[in-house]
Amino acid sequence: MERGIFDIESIKKANNTLIETLNDSIKITQEGKNARALAEKELVETEKALKSALLATKAKQEELAKNSATKEALESK
What are the extents of the domains in the chain? Predict the structure, then answer.
């Protein structure tokens, strides 16, 4: 009879361990999903900032080129 009780306790312990493992796996998966979503959001914001900086740089270069051309035209007269 003792052997039967021990086996049931072992099964209960194994079951609980398995349930905890499954719950931990779900938690880890959710944390990973959240981290990826946050990283994607930050990447989009970083990309927007870079595009904005590139457009501002391009506009400044075009303005400098325009001013330089105007200055050269005035000096040649």
Answer: 1-77
